[in-house]
Amino acid sequence: MREELNRLDYISAYETWLAQEKRASANTLSSYLRDVRQFDRWVREERLSLPQISQEDVRRYAQYLEKRGKSNATVVRSVAALKSFYTYLLSARVIRANPAKGFTLSRVERKLPAILSNNEVDLFLEQPDPSDAKGCRDKAMLELLYATGIRVSELISLDVQDLNLSASFLRCRGRGKERVVPLYKGAVRAMAAYINDVRPQLLEDPGETALFVNMNGDRMSRQGFWKIVKCYQDKAGIHKDITPHTLRHSFAVHLLENGADLKSIQEMLGHADISATQIYTQVVNQKLRDVYSMAHPRA
């Protein structure tokens, strides 16, 4: 019973450490905890304990995942979660060495993110009908997402006070940092129409601080916004798979194509490391190669 309690304590304490000390995003928190709990089930089946795991055990677990048909990307992510978990146990002095730290696995070739062309963005953003309350709200959300490149988690977490329409900028808090992102005129107009004419109609509680609310007056959820994006993808007849992150990627690539420097894009996206932003240069370079192949008479 004591061993079971310790096991739960380790994972619970790790969750607190990830959220409060490392300021992990909601997605990272969810995926890492899922991977660690899955590993914990394997550990119990093997009659081991979490603090006594060796590098050989980590290797065997990676092989176990591969035999179950898990993709290379899934195995890499799972090992990354274990490295993080044992980094915590090391910092808490539960263990003396991180058994996952020295374990190497071939890195997955990172796929270039899918983006929309300028015409596809225009078509997509034209789909909401701003003459009714839902369409006006949806238009404002989609325009804001493409105008700023913020994450969907950041979008639904926005409060009214985070928006400054008179100065045309948005204050966004994500992953423990605050950043300011400018807005183009079309996004400002869409937001003004929503805030002045529609949001007051949707609110059930006048004290609600959420910038974007659902039709019941509650804060918009991630799942609710996902459905909105898919709805307008279908209406636009765009065959690419559009997700909220597709607009974020498109925002970055379109800025880069039009002369924005990589450092400014990094700041607007809220990337902690410039390497995360550099993927967009590969997208632009690939597009140039594709144009060259199609257009050059000797290509």
What descriptors fit this protein?
three-stranded antiparallel beta sheet, disordered N terminus, mainly alpha
Question: What's the short story on this structure?
Answer:
The protein is 60% helix and 5% strand. The chain is mainly α and 299 residues long.
Describe what you observe in this structure:
It contains 13 helices and 3 strands. With 299 residues, it is mostly helical. β1 (163-164) and β2 (169-174) form a beta hairpin. Mean pLDDT is 89; it is low at 1-5.
Gyration radius from CA atoms, angstroms: 23 Å
The amount of beta strand, in percent, is under 5%
Largest sheet: 3 strands, antiparallel
Helix content: 55-70%
| Low-pLDDT segments | 1-5
Please give the alpha-carbon distance between the first and last residues: 70 Å
Approximate shape: globular
How many separate helices? Answer: 13
Q: What would you call the structural class?
A: mainly alpha
